[in-house]
Prior knowledge:
The chain is mostly helical and 96 residues long.
Amino acid sequence: MMENIFIPVEADFRKWIREELNSFLLKLPQNKQLSEGDKEPLLSREEVIKMFKISFMTLNAWMNKGLPHYRQSRRVFFLKSEIMNFLKVNKKKTIF
């Protein structure tokens, strides 16, 4: 007796991946929506430079050493909480 061999095609893989992702997402706890008061504003490079009284070169050095930042086209933004955490974690290391 000869058995049929099933050879999946790209559409089959896409369907299986979609089903698995949907299953995984349904098991995740619902993300709570942030209220307006909970949102942390994004800071520009200029705001960070003024806030911490540092130079543009120092800010770039921090970014190269792992300071979290977000890019939108050519603009770069930061969260103050992430900057403070970065400085706290790296205070024993020389970051300048």
